[in-house]
């Protein structure tokens, strides 16, 4: 995170195979993310083992992390251990534990740039021609072990048959060829590894550039989507207020007419000196004014444009009460019987005004559905089942045609007459419920009518009692 790039050598816990990671920071300051490339060595190890090669690769601590012979893997080479110790510190635990102890290469003889060493294996003590090559860029070392058993056997046979000189010459020739092949193989392996790392690094740079562009484009798209969604919800609320306007005007006109009557009678009582009747009328006028203030205050809150920020605990009962207050006049004019069954202290996580908007939309749709019904009835009930809060709005209307059930949540789809709706209510409700982490669906009931079901995850805030 400080340098903008980094590498890591470790073991993948799922496969228990060695992996090498190259990572680059994405974005400037602050860092937006990290892109990583994983390099695998399984094929290289398999090729070494298939060819009968004995090749080891150790990290900076001298721990063998790649080997054609599994008995050497995850052991440290004793030459890398500090004097007077049998083990290096365990490190960060990136490798599985190998209880075989460190690898002790005992040097028997020096031959040019190589050494003849003896090392203990599961099959006994073996001698090898030993070469090393440092990969300084990575802090790794390649160790090459060439089997000396053939050479030793040839020497013994040569002594027995008296042809030691010829066999030694042949053995020397074979040794030179083998050493040359080993060096060529080591160089090829090093070059291949460097080429792979360079290629992956170039790909990573290109990927980083593309990723930065994609992240910026996605950020702009998300901002536009949020703005559009908020504007759409605001349009839906204004459409709902427009449908409620006649009923709200009726609801406010009645108290205003009553207030005028009470004021006129109060003047008469005042002229007569009847203080008790004057006080009673003033109390009635105050109650009517408070009722109108509650209606207009809630209308202003409901009509305000939503600016979603941090989600909050939402009391479902309060949301239902707010929705009922908004459409109370509409219910009165429709003549429908509305029953509510809402338990106390039931919370979900989201935004109170948005949940209220969803309930208003569903209740308005239910009122439209029961316009031509003899005994219009609407039920709103809230249930809790398996940590899910279900809000059901049920009516006894004509129901939704089967061919339209899959379309009711599409934007601008409506079965109402022209001028009766924009077809946005259920679409907006669908988006809000999905943002809450829930789902909404519609269905027809066997006994007739429609049932709209909202399912939201229950939420238990620490201060639920305060909110309640």
Automatic annotation (TrEMBL):
Cross-referenced InterPro entries: HATPase_C_sf (IPR036890), HATPase_dom (IPR003594), His_kinase_dom (IPR005467), HisK_dim/P_dom (IPR003661), HisK_dim/P_sf (IPR036097), Sig_transdc_His_kin-like_C (IPR004358)
What keywords were assigned to this record? ATP-binding, Cell inner membrane, Cell membrane, Coiled coil, Kinase, Membrane, Nucleotide-binding, Phosphoprotein, Transferase, Transmembrane, Transmembrane helix, Two-component regulatory system
Q: Name one GO cellular component term.
A: plasma membrane
The membrane topology term of the UniProt record is:
Multi-pass membrane protein
Protein name according to UniProt = C4-dicarboxylate transport sensor protein DctB
One Pfam family of this chain: HATPase_c
**Reactions catalysed:** ATP + protein L-histidine = ADP + protein N-phospho-L-histidine
- Please report the organism this UniProt entry assigns to the protein: Bradyrhizobium icense
Annotated signal peptide: none
Its main subcellular localisation, reduced to a broad class, is membrane
Q: Could you list the residue ranges forming a coiled coil in this record?
A: 204-231
Q: Where is the Histidine kinase domain?
A: 247-460
Enzyme class, UniProt record, top EC level: transferase
């Amino acid at each position: 995170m400080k340098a903008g790039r980094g590498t890591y050598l470790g073991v993948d816990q799922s496969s228990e195979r060695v992996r090498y990671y190259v990572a680059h920071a994405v974005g400037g300051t602050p860092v937006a993310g990290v892109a990583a490339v994983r390099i695998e060595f399984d094929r290289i190890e398999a090729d070494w083992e298939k060819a009968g090669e004995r090749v080891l690769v150790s990290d900076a601590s001298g721990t063998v992390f790649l080997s054609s012979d599994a008995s050497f893997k995850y052991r440290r080479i004793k030459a890398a251990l500090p004097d007077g110790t049998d083990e290096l510190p365990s490190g960060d635990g990136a490798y599985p534990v190998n209880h075989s102890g460190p690898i002790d290469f005992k040097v028997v003889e020096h031959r040019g740039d190589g050494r003849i060493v003896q090392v203990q294996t599961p099959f006994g003590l073996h001698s090898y021609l030993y070469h090393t090559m440092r990969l300084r860029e990575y802090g790794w070392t390649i160790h090459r072990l060439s089997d000396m058993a053939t050479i030793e056997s040839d020497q013994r046979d040569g002594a027995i048959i008296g042809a030691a000189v010829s066999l030694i010459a042949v053995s020397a020739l074979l040794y030179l060829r083998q050493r040359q092949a080993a060096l060529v193989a080591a160089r090829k392996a090093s070059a291949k590894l460097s080429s792979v790392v360079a290629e992956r690094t170039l790909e990573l740079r290109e990927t980083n550039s593309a990723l930065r562009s994609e992240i910026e484009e996605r950020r702009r798209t998300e901002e536009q989507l949020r703005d559009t969604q908020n504007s759409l919800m605001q349009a839906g609320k204004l459409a709902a207020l427009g449908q409620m306007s006649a009923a709200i005007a009726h609801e406010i006109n009645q108290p205003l007419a009553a207030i005028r009557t009470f004021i006129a009678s109060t003047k008469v009582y005042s002229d007569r000196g009847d203080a008790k009747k004057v006080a009673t009328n003033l109390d009635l006028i105050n109650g009517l004014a408070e009722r109108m203030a509650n209606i207009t205050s809630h209308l202003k809150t409901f009509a305000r444009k939503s600016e979603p920020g941090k989600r909050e605990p939402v009391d479902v009962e309060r949301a239902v009460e707010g929705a009922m207050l908004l459409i109370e006049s509409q219910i009165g004019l429709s003549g429908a019987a509305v029953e509510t069954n809402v338990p106390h202290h039931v919370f979900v996580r989201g935004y109170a005004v948005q949940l209220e908007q969803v309930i208003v939309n569903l209740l308005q749709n239910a009122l439209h559905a029961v316009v031509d019904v003899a005994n219009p009835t609407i039920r709103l009930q809230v249930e809790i089942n398996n940590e899910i809060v279900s809000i059901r709005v049920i009516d006894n209307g004509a129901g939704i045609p089967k061919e339209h059930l899959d379309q009711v949540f599409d934007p601008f789809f409506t079965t109402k007459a022209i001028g009766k709706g924009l077809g946005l209510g259920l679409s907006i409700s669908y988006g809000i419920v999905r943002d809450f982490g829930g789902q909404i669906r519609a269905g027809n009931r066997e006994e007739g009518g429609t049932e709209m079901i909202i399912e939201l995850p229950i939420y238990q805030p620490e201060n639920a009692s305060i909110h309640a």
